[in-house]
Write a structure and sequence with these properties.
- The protein is built from 14 helices and 23 strands.
- By secondary structure, the protein is α+β, with helices and mostly antiparallel strands.
- The strands form five sheets. Strands 10, 11, 14, 15, 16, 17, 19, 22 and 23 form a nine-stranded antiparallel sheet that branches. A five-stranded parallel sheet has the order 3-2-1-4-5, with helices on both faces.
- The longest helix is centred in the middle third of the chain and has 21 residues, at 238-258.
- The structure holds adenosine monophosphate and glycine (GLY).
- Glycine (GLY) is lined by residues 150, 211, 225-226, 284, 288-289, 291.
- Glycine binds next to loops.
Length: 423
C-alpha cells in the first residue's frame, strides 16, 4: 500500500520512521516533509490546504491511506474532503476536530456528559468574563477559545492579572482564537498526557507521556511547543489508565457519536491527576509533538494496521504493544526560540550522535543542502533514546546530544526531572 503523510515536524519524522518499518508499505510519501523525513520517504510539494490537489495526488499515486500529523489541516476539513472522495484517512472530521479547535465546545461536552474537568464559564464579552472571575477568585485560568499554537492559556494569580488576560484576548492578543474566552477553575495535581485511538465504535488505549512545555530549566519561562518528553508517565499507573479510559475517553467517544460528530483518530488527552481522580485539561485531535517521538520509539507492533483500522472502523480486532523501557526525547531548538531566532546555520555530527541502536534523531525544522543539514525552524532536532529506566534513557539521550555540533542551538538539560525525582 502507498501512504501519504501530511506534516513537517518531529512528530511526522517519528511517524514516517515507524510507518516505513511496516512490511505493508510500498511507497511512503510525505508532504512537505523535512531534512530528516526525505531520507526515509518520498517528499512531495503538496499544499495541504488545497484539498483537490491532495485528492488528485492520492488518485494518481494510488494512495491507500492518508495520515494527517498536525491539527490545522484537520480543523480545516481535510479528512472530510478525503472521506468524500473515498480515500481512507487517519484523522477526525472538522466537526470532530472541534475537540481541539474550540475549548468551549469541549467544556460544554464535558458538562453535558459528566466528563470530569475544571469548572468553567464561556464568554463572548469581557464584562461577563470579569464578573465570573470576581465570583470565583484566584488562582484562575483564562483561555482563548480557538487554536493558539499552545500559547492561548494564562494562569492568573490575581484578579487584575486575570482581567488583563481577558482584555488582551478580546483585544486580539491571540488573533481570532480569542473571539471567545473560557475562564476555568485552577486544578492542582500532576499533569500527564494520554493517547487512545477511536474509530467511531471502539476505543483502544495507546500509551502515556509527559512533556516539558516551558523553555527554561525546572519548567520555567515562556511556553513552547514542547522542549522534551518521556514515556511512560509514572503517574499513570495501570489503575489510573483504566479510570481514564472509563471516565474520560470512552464517555468522550460516546458523546461525540451522540452529538453527531463521531470521532475517528487519535485522542490526545491532557490530564490533571488530582486528589479526587483524573480530570481533563484539554483534548488534542492529533499526536503530540514531541510526545509522538517517544511513543513511536516504544511501540513494538506494526503501526499501519492500527492506523488503517482507525480509518475503516475495525479497531476492535486490533491490539497495540509497547516495550516496558522508557523513551525520552530532548528537543534541540534554535537560540532565541520561542522568541525570534535566525535560520540557516549548519548542524554537524548527527550521524555520529545517532550511531547507538537505541538512539534516533527525529528532525523538525531542518532541510538538506549540498549534503549539509541546515536549521530552518524553531524546534530543530529531537534526540530520542530508549533504555530500561528513565535515568538511563536520559543519560543516553544527553550523551547523543553532546556529540552534535550546532553552536546556534540549545536544549534543556533537565528533561525527565520529575520522573527521575520520583524514582
Ligand atoms: P492547555 O493549552 O489547555 O493544555 O493549557 C496549557 C497548560 O496550562 C496545561 O498544560 C496546564 O499546565 C495549564 N492549565 C490549563 N488549564 C488548567 C487548569 N484548569 N488548572 C491548572 N492548570 C491548567
Ligand atoms: N507537546 C504538546 C503538543 O503537542 O500539543
Amino acid at each position: 500500500m502507498n501512504i501519504l503523510l501530511i506534516g513537517s515536524g518531529g512528530r511526522e519524522h517519528a511517524l514516517a520512521w515507524k510507518i516505513g518499518q511496516s512490511p505493508l508499505v510500498e511507497t511512503l510519501f510525505c508532504a512537505p516533509g523535512n531534512g530528516g523525513i526525505e531520507t526515509i520517504a518520498s517528499c512531495v510539494d503538496l499544499d495541504a490546504t488545497d484539498h483537490d490537489a491532495v485528492i488528485d495526488f492520492c488518485r494518481k499515486q494510488k494512495v491507500g491511506l492518508v495520515v494527517v500529523g498536525p491539527e490545522a489541516p484537520l480543523v480545516d476539513g481535510i479528512a472530510d474532503a478525503l472521506n468524500a472522495a473515498g480515500i481512507p484517512v487517519f484523522g477526525p472530521s472538522a466537526a470532530a476536530a472541534q475537540l481541539e479547535g474550540s475549548k468551549g465546545f469541549t467544556k460544554d461536552m464535558c458538562a453535558r456528559y459528566n466528563i470530569p474537568t475544571a469548572a468553567y464559564g464561556r464568554f463572548s464579552d469581557p464584562d461577563s468574563a470579569k464578573q465570573y472571575i470576581a465570583e470565583c477568585g484566584t488562582p484562575i485560568v483564562v483561555k482563548a477559545d480557538g487554536l493558539a499554537a499552545g500559547k492561548g492559556v494564562i494562569i492568573a494569580a490575581t484578579i487584575p492579572e486575570a482581567n488583563d488576560a481577558v482584555d488582551m484576548m478580546f483585544d486580539g492578543g491571540f488573533g481570532e482564537a480569542g473571539g471567545e474566552v473560557v475562564v476555568e477553575e485552577f486544578m492542582v495535581g500532576e499533569e500527564a498526557s494520554f493517547f487512545a485511538l477511536a474509530d467511531g465504535k471502539t476505543t483502544l488505549p495507546l500509551a502515556t507521556a509527559q512533556d516539558h512545555k516551558a523553555v527554561g530549566e525546572g519548567d520555567t519561562g515562556p511556553n513552547t511547543g514542547g522542549m522534551g518528553a518521556y514515556s511512560p508517565a509514572p503517574v499513570m499507573t495501570e489503575q489510573m489508565v483504566d479510570r481514564v479510559m472509563a471516565e474520560i475517553i470512552e464517555p468522550t467517544a460516546a458523546a461525540m457519536a451522540d452529538m453527531g460528530c463521531t470521532y475517528k483518530g487519535v485522542l490526545f488527552a491532557g490530564l490533571m491527576i488530582t486528589d479526587t481522580g483524573p480530570k481533563l485539561i484539554e483534548y488534542n485531535c492529533r499526536f503530540g509533538d514531541p510526545e509522538c517521538q517517544v511513543l513511536m520509539m516504544r511501540m513494538t507492533c506494526d503501526i499501519v494496521p492500527l492506523l488503517m483500522a482507525t480509518a475503516d472502523g475495525s479497531l476492535a480486532a486490533q491490539t497495540a504493544s509497547w516495550t516496558e523501557d522508557t523513551a525520552l526525547a530532548v528537543v534541540l531548538a534554535a537560540k532565541g526560540y520561542p522568541g525570534s531566532y535566525s535560520k540557516g546555520s549548519v548542524i554537524k555530527n548527527t550521524d555520529i550522535a545517532a550511531s547507538d541502536e537505541n538512539v534516533e534523531i527525529f528532525h523538525a525544522g531542518t532541510k538538506r543542502e549540498n549534503g549539509n543539514i541546515i536549521a530552518v525552524g524553531g524546534r530543530v532536532l529531537n534526540v530520542t533514546a530508549q533504555a530500561p529506566s528513565v535515568v538511563e534513557a536520559k543519560n543516553l539521550a544527553y550523551s547523543a546530544v553532546s556529540k552534535i555540533e550546532w553552536p546556534d542551538g540549545f536544549c534543556r538539560s533537565d528533561i525527565g526531572w520529575r520522573a527521575i525525582n520520583r524514582s
